[in-house]
Amino acid sequence: MVDQDNVSDQLEAWLRTEGEHTLGGLVEVFEEKSFALLFIILLGVSALPLPTGGATHVFDVIAVLVAAQLVAGRDMIWIPQRWRGLRVGGGKQERFIRGLLRFLRFLERFSRPRLAFLFEHRLSNSIFGLLVIAGTAGAFFAPPFSGLDTLPALGVVIVSFGVLLEDIAVVAAGVVVGAGGILLEIVAGKAAVGGIKKLFS
To answer: Where are the domains of the chain?
Structure first.
């Protein structure tokens, strides 16, 4: 198990090892912590303040499938063999992960374990999985090129960081961000529907 106080150091050390850095390798090294790390990597692109135009939908689907395993009570990620070879390091991907590393180190400076006993239980893991599914669905159903997928995805990323750090305050902040993003989508959707109705009324 990876110590929650040294997640950034462990991740950087793994990136520095020789050989390819694959999804399967990440799961083997980080064990149960690989759930949170995988959600951070998969939703991190959508969390950037840039319109993705639906290009990240494949990542969203994978995130939901992995989160469903948490809800079902699995301790380790099961992924198809063809996914295990997907690279999560090298080139642009590695620069992206190093950006996430900087954000993780920033959070580590201010974070500390808060209510750590709540983590690593089947019930809390299931709740974590449900939060990821909700936030990922919010990102998935956001209109293309609207940028509305940013906040739901960022909520998942922050919640996942909170789980890594075993800090309930960070988790709560992620829930607020994600819920705010979903609410914004609903408001914007209603406004768009209302505008369309006015055009044809």
So the answer is: 4-200
